[in-house]
Write a structure and sequence with these properties.
mainly alpha
């Protein structure tokens, strides 16, 4: 979620008023781990799609976001095969 993993400009990324040093270190470590893990996944050939909590208000928008970013090489996936009748994410490949 936005609170734990942070992204620039998000309204959901506040810092607790107590133990600010602890929280800053915690959030920084989370973000550094996210970058490291994303890089590892991409190097292993995965397509990484990040969907922030603040962008999850409308399921249809999430489905379109994911479909638009899937590799075109995946049969039945990607922008060329967009289905607009379902608000559910696509089945795993």
């Amino acid at each position: 979620g936005c609170f734990w993993h942070r992204h620039p400009g998000c309204r959901m990324t506040s810092v607790p008023k107590t133990r600010a040093d602890y929280w800053d270190a915690k959030f920084t470590a989370n973000m550094e781990r996210d970058i490291r893990v994303r890089r590892q996944l991409e190097e292993a050939g995965w397509t990484v799609i990040v969907i922030w909590e603040c962008a999850t208000r409308d399921a249809a928008d999430i489905v379109a976001f994911v479909r638009d970013r899937l590799p075109a090489a995946v049969p039945g996936r990607g922008p060329q095969s967009r289905r607009t009748t379902s608000a559910m994410p696509p089945d795993p490949v």
